[in-house]
C-alpha cells in the first residue's frame, strides 16, 4: 500500500453522542481503552471482548491514538461520534505538517501496520488539517449489518 492508502479527505458529517479523550502519553492508553469499553456498555453494546464490532472500534482507537502520540505532537484528542449507523473516530494532534504515512513493503512481524489495519476495519477513512491540527479519521460499523449501510 502506498501513500494513497490513507487519503486526504474531509471528515464526514457525524451526528450522535460525542465521546472525547485528551491524551498526552502512551501510558494513558490502557485507561482510555477501558473507559471506551465502559461507554460501549453504557449504550447497550457488549463491553466484553466477544463483540467483534466493539473490539474493532477499540483497536482502531488504540492504533490511531498511539500513532498520534508516537509520531505527532501533544496534546492528542481522540473523539468518537456514536451515530445511528456507525462510529466516527477522529484523532487529532498538533503536527499538521506530518501526514499519515502507511508503511510500504515491511514485514508485518516488524509492526508499524496500524494505518493499514484501521483502513481494513473501516468503511471509510482519511485525514485533513484544520486549525493547526492534523486529524486522522475512520468510520467503523456498529454491527456487521451496518457496514453495508455506511459503505
UniProtKB/TrEMBL annotation:
Pfam families recorded: HATPase_c_2
Molecular-function annotations in GO: protein serine/threonine kinase activity
Residue stretches making up the Histidine kinase/HSP90-like ATPase domain: 26-138
InterPro entries: Anti-sigma-factor_SerPK, HATPase_C_sf, HATPase_dom
Lineage, uppermost ranks: Bacteria, Bacillati, Actinomycetota, Actinomycetes, Geodermatophilales
Keywords: Kinase, Serine/threonine-protein kinase, Transferase
UniProt entry tagged with the keyword Glycoprotein: no
Protein name, per record: Histidine kinase-like protein
Keyword Kinase: yes
SUPFAM superfamilies for the chain: ATPase domain of HSP90 chaperone/DNA topoisomerase II/histidine kinase
Amino acid at each position: 500500500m502506498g501513500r494513497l492508502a490513507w487519503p486526504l479527505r474531509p471528515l464526514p458529517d457525524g451526528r450522535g453522542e460525542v465521546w472525547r479523550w485528551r491524551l498526552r502519553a502512551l501510558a494513558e492508553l490502557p485507561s482510555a481503552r477501558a473507559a471506551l469499553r465502559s461507554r460501549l456498555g453504557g449504550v447497550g453494546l457488549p463491553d466484553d471482548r466477544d463483540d467483534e464490532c466493539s473490539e474493532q472500534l477499540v483497536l482502531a482507537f488504540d492504533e490511531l491514538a498511539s500513532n498520534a502520540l508516537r509520531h505527532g505532537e501533544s496534546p492528542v484528542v481522540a473523539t468518537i461520534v456514536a451515530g445511528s449507523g456507525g462510529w466516527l473516530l477522529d484523532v487529532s494532534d498538533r503536527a499538521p505538517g506530518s501526514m499519515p504515512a502507511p508503511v510500504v513493503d515491511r514485514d508485518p512481524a516488524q509492526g508499524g501496520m496500524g494505518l493499514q489495519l484501521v483502513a481494513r476495519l473501516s468503511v471509510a477513512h482519511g485525514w485533513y488539517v484544520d486549525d493547526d491540527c492534523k486529524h486522522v479519521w475512520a468510520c467503523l460499523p456498529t454491527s456487521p449489518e451496518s457496514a453495508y449501510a455506511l459503505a
